[in-house]
Structure formats: C-alpha cells, structure tokens
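Methods — Computational structure assignment.
A single polypeptide chain was analysed. Its primary sequence is given first, followed by the predicted tertiary structure written as structure tokens.
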Amino acid sequence: MSDTVKTASHPFAKRNPLFRHAYCKGIILSILANKALPKATRMQQCEAALVKIRGSLGIQLQESDESYLQTVSTTDIEQILNTLRNELTSDASRVAFLYEIAYYQQASFRTDADFQQVWQSFVDDLNFRKDAVPALWNVCQTLANCQFPPLDISLLSWMCGACGISWSDLSAFFTNESDLKANMTIMLPGDVPLELAWCPAGVFMMGSPAAEAERDDDEPLHQVKISKGFWMGIYPVTQKQYTAVMGSNPSNYDGFDSHPVENVTWFDAKDFCKRALKLAQNIPDGMTIDLPTEAQWEYACRAGTKTPFHFGDKLNGEQANCDGTRPYGTTQEGANIDCTCNVGSYAPNAWGLYDMHGNVWEWCNDWYGPYQEGFVADPQGAANGTKHSERGGSWRNAAKRCRAAIRRKSAPEDVYDNLGFRVILTSGK
C-alpha cells in the first residue's frame, strides 16, 4: 500500500481515544519520515490518511483535520506508551495492538530508519520478549505491503508461534472483526462427539520452496486463496467415531477406540461423510460434511507457518508419530512406534489441530494431478483421474514423508493400514 490507508475495524482504536492517537501517530511518522517526498506532499498524504482513518474507525473529530494532525504529530509518544503499558496487560493484547499498528502503515516504512526507531520504541516499552522482536518486525514488514483482507489470518497465526502465544488468546481480540468463529462439536450416534476446529479464510503459500530439503517435484510453491472458512476435525476420524456411524471397524489395528481408523477406501471415507451428516444430532441447517481438498488440508496443517512442519524444520519421531529412526533436519534419531497411536498424543498446531503430521495418511477429496500455476483461488484438484490425493504421512514413513507439502496418491478402492481421513464441515452456501 503506497498511496492509501487500508480500511479495517480496530477494537483498540475504537475503545480509547489515546489508542487512536497511537494509530495516527504511527502513520503520520511513517509518512513524514519519507524524506524522498517534498514536505508539502507529505502533509497532503497525512491529511488524506486521516480521512481514511476517520471513516474506517467511525470517529467524528471535534477539530479540523489540520488541527487534529497537528495535535497527533506533537503528542508525546511517552504519554501513549504509558497508557498502553497500563491497559495492554497481556502478551496477546500487546501483539494484537502492534499488529493493528503495522497494518495501517505505508510500504515506505519498511526500510525507513526513522520509523523503525519509533516502532522499536513501541516494542521496547511494551516489554515484548526479546526473542520475539525479529519475528514481529518481519510480520510488520509483510503487512505493510499486504494485498489481502484486513486481518491476515496466516500472519496472525505465525505471530502466535513467534511470540509464544496461544491462537485462542490472540484471536479473541479479533473475533468480532474478522472471519473467526468458535470451535464446534457435533454428536454422532451413541453420543460420540466429533470435535471440529475453525479454520478461517485466508491466503497462504502452498507447496514447498526450492530450498526445502528432500522435497518432491510435485510440490511447486504457489499462492492459494481459501475464500471461505471451514471447520475441520481436530483429529483424524477415530475407530470409535467410524463405528458409531458405519456400524463396523475395518482397521488392522482394531480394538483401540482412540486410534485413527485405517484400512478405509476413499469411497468408505465419502460414505462416512454422507452418513454422518444424516445421523448427527446437532449439525446446523445448510451445512455439509466432506473430505477436505488438498489446499484446505495443507492450509489447515500449516496454520500460518511456512516451515516443513507446523512445529518447525525438524522431526525425529518425538514431535509426531513417524519412523523416527529416519529423521529430518537433524541427525538425532528418535522414536519409532511402528503402528498407529492414540490421536492427540502430540502437540497441536496453532489452530488446535492434532496429528496433521504422521500417524495416518489422510484421504483428500481431489483427484491427484499437477498444481495450477500462479495465484489460485479455492483449487479443487485435477478435473479427473485414477487416483486421489493423500496428505500428512504416517507412522510407517520416514520423517521427510510427513512434511506439510508432501503428497501421495492411491486408487479410490485401495486400503492400507496407515491410511485414514478427517472431515471438514462447511456452509452449503
């Protein structure tokens, strides 16, 4: 954004006039610091920015734009910071506020030393963890040129990990401002719960970068937009859930209610979705249960991250159920359980989804095929084919086969004792 101020609805700025000063001061400083422009041009840009801010925040100023500009540009930054210290008492509130400040900035601020100094004063005086500062600055740089919706969910998710903050704590500040909704639990026959986590709309980089070690040729990096949020099963479908809906359990490792169901065909998985929609007790009207597309699956798996795994760039069986004797990103070998395990045995990603790496491969809705090139919105996979896509890797696989970008394919009638599925719930509209 080089010539306009983005529009959004910011809870902090609406709540306190001093926060509005902080927003405006940050924007004005970034404009005034752009010495490449004549002073008169910079003042005109400041006044234009104020018009945008007033409209987006719904604020009626008592004075003229020129007077307000003068007030804000001369407001003592320490006065603002003292108030912020008293009111932004949690890590999540401070990160949310800094996110909003960064969102409004002009692209020129990213390399402007004067504004970086002002930004650093916010970070220092609000007592952010020192190890989080580089990650925060990187996010703010990205936001300055962001062409996506007002709340960039992927970046916000990444900030959670960078700053050690839970997704639920940070997203709470934006619940009424964006495509964020509560998690949901639907009840299958026999009062068996199926828990689902909300995955908001957003944009992400699908596939793997050329520099990612041991990547495959069918993972070209490309930008994908997920235009509509969806709920995804927190776990892969378990043996207990599958039996509740289908009346039988085909698993090779049967008798373990909390292990993922396996030995299911793609047709079985689709049939489960159809029956669960019909039999569940409390699904809202107009909703559909289905398998995720590959794009939805990887988007949900990453939850804002760009590393090979949602927990970083190393896996040796300690972070997910895989063959840890064949590690990735490290020479240290780890566990090899050599079978499925209870779902939820390892830490979830930022959106509260478990077992996105390892345990069992998961069927996707798509026919397997090459990715579309360039920017793609809501890709559905190949128009036709003979095999369907699977994602996530499994207990049997080396760690490299459990990366977020890894792809596998099988005929829809195939069954394996390391292949299961998870479901999504979407609006039919």
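Note: The two ends are 32 Å apart (CA to CA).
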